[in-house]
Write a structure and sequence with these properties.
Strand order of the largest sheet: 3-5-4-6-8-7-12-13-11-9-10
Structural class: alpha/beta
Distance between the termini: 47 Å
Largest sheet: 11 strands, mixed
Helix content: 25-40%
């Protein structure tokens, strides 16, 4: 493929789609003539047992016309994997051991649950753990592997954690705010969990999230690298559980950086997919047109099979129409050529970063150049102002929260009370909101043109501009304190672009984790993951673990 066309014609390839009774058998490609069944009527309620259904078809990222590429799965040799303590192993390593019969899902699940029982008292990454059903699911997965052999889904028997915004039928769903949703029980499964459950993944439990997933701290959870620091938010519990080796995989959501911020803070990996690639049906929303569901793991290669399992068309989520006949598969091994010929852009006007974070960002640029990548400065749009974006999000936040706010105002934390008061005071008029939506389209086109015209494979950007902050009392702070860590993540959500977060050199000032992100054109998710896999083949930042 001609390089200058890459930003418009990216390649990716897929897995089986199973949701709410609608299935797509698991070939790696889907015929253009495929007939997809839509529900006769939209669901009257939603699995979260709240009024969470998107009230309008939301913005979709433009899909390239190029034929998607299919990536061949490659698992490590199980004979070279030390299975003595499986809690430290990644998704692909565990898949290799399970396939070879060198480990059972029941052994693995029990080890993870035991570790969390022993260590999570101090960290508090889980809001609820489900040991009985997790072990039962693990035994079922072992039986399935014996019965189906090589036909067994790759993820079968590998446990995971879900952020406390994902509906699981019959389980509490509290979105980090038990004072408001303490009695709420999910009436069905969200799409992402339905697909992973169908693949045979045992659910370890729900992980903590920032209150209503609105914020970047998740302060009720300790960062495994320093218990006095926040783990980032709002998917902070998922990231902390990964870093602490309580789970090899997790799902989170990302509205303005909520997958990438905690990944950076906890030294793990995540991907915010292209808008509409993964269904958000059955998740507690922050702002429907900004929300994304994505996987988290301890390596970039481990993100691929998780994303493959949850991506694709969902009749209950209008944003996923762009994923029809868009097969997905993802790289699991580095390219022989590595980063040679890869072109990465960085802003010509350096972002404002704390000294230790700036050192890490510059060190990653130097590392990538040494590995054969071209890292070039380009004139980029002025970084999206978080205040402007949150005011725009406020229309959608207010529409969802109206079922409780202000009638149950006392159930909200001080942080949310003051945040919502601010949003309502700055509620844009209909014309201003429409202008905001038009500006989103212009800004998306600007980024796509920049990637195309400079023949860039991705932009290399920081995740956070600041060091990690101390944990405040739960919810007892103002909006400015809640956003004390300056994110560099807003454009990907505003414009529907994919972004992969990976660990970088620790801060030279605090020694705590720092992350960078690769942001690319719509539907370049697989190519971004390939670059991340290539980077991690030659760096070891992601292999560092906290001493707990």
């Amino acid at each position: 493929m001609e390089r200058r066309k890459f930003a418009q014609a990216v390649t990716v390839g897929s897995a089986a789609v199973v949701v709410a009774g609608y299935s797509k058998a698991g070939s790696s490609t889907m015929s253009p003539a495929t007939t997809l069944s839509y529900p006769e009527q939209p669901p009257a309620t939603d699995p979260t047992n709240t009024d969470a259904l998107a009230p309008f078809p939301v913005q979709q990222a433009p899909r390239p016309v190029a034929k998607p590429r299919t990536y061949e799965l490659s698992l490590p040799d199980h004979r070279g994997i030390d299975a003595a303590d499986p809690t430290g192993l990644g998704v692909l390593e565990l898949a290799a051991l399970l396939r070879a019969g060198a480990l059972t899902s029941e052994q693995l699940t029990r080890s993870l649950l035991d570790r969390a029982e022993d260590k999570d008292i101090e960290i508090n990454s889980f809001v609820r753990r489900y040991p009985d059903t997790a072990l039962a699911a693990a035994r079922d997965a072992d039986a399935r592997r014996r019965s189906e052999g090589e036909r067994t889904p790759l993820l079968c028997g590998i446990p995971l954690a879900l952020k406390d915004v994902f509906a699981v039928q019959g389980r509490p769903l509290t979105a980090g705010l038990p004072a408001l949703l303490g009695d709420n029980v999910a009436t069905g499964d969200c799409t992402a969990w339905a697909r992973l459950k169908a693949d045979g993944m045992p659910l370890l439990g729900h992980a903590q999230t920032h209150q209503m997933a609105i914020g970047s701290l998740t302060e009720q959870t300790a960062n495994p690298w320093n218990f006095h620091k926040v783990p980032g938010g709002s998917s902070g519990g998922s990231a902390a559980a990964l870093a602490a080796r309580f789970t090899p995989a997790a799902l989170g959501t990302d509205t303005a950086g909520s997958l990438r911020i905690p990944a950076s803070a906890c030294n793990v990996c995540s991907i915010k997919p292209t808008a509409g690639l993964v269904s958000v049906y059955g998740t507690i929303p922050v702002a429907w047109s900004f929300d994304n569901v994505g996987p988290m793991a301890r390596s970039a290669a481990d993100l691929g099979p998780l994303l493959a399992a949850i991506a694709g068309f969902d009749p209950f989520d209008p944003r996923t129409n762009g994923a029809i006949d868009w097969p997905q598969s993802y790289p699991s091994t580095p390219r022989p050529s590595g980063l040679s010929g890869t072109r990465l852009g960085i802003p010509a006007t350096a972002p404002t970063l704390d000294p230790g974070v700036a050192d890490s960002y510059r060190a990653m640029q130097a590392t990538l150049r040494s590995l054969g990548a071209e890292v070039i400065e380009v004139e980029t749009p002025t970084p999206m102002n978080y205040l402007d974006m949150i005011i725009g999000q406020g229309v959608e936040i207010g529409a969802y929260q109206a079922q409780w706010w202000p009638a149950r105002r006392d159930a909200y934390t001080r942080y949310l009370k003051e945040s919502f008061a601010f949003l309502l005071d700055h509620e844009p008029k209909a014309i201003a909101y429409n202008q905001l939506l038009r500006e989103r389209t212009r800004r998306q086109q600007h980024w796509c043109a920049l990637l195309r015209d400079h023949a860039l494979d991705a932009m290399l950007l920081p995740v956070l501009g600041t060091e990690l902050v101390d944990r405040p009392p739960f919810g007892d702070y103002g909006p400015q304190e809640g956003m004390a860590m300056s994110p560099q993540t807003n454009d990907a959500n505003y414009c529907g672009l994919p972004a992969v977060a990976i660990p970088a050199q620790p801060s030279t000032v605090t020694g705590l984790p720092v992350g960078v992100q690769l942001m690319g054109a719509p539907y370049s998710d697989a190519h971004l993951l390939q670059i991340a896999v290539d980077i991690q083949a030659h760096t070891d930042y992601h292999t560092a673990t906290p001493d707990i």
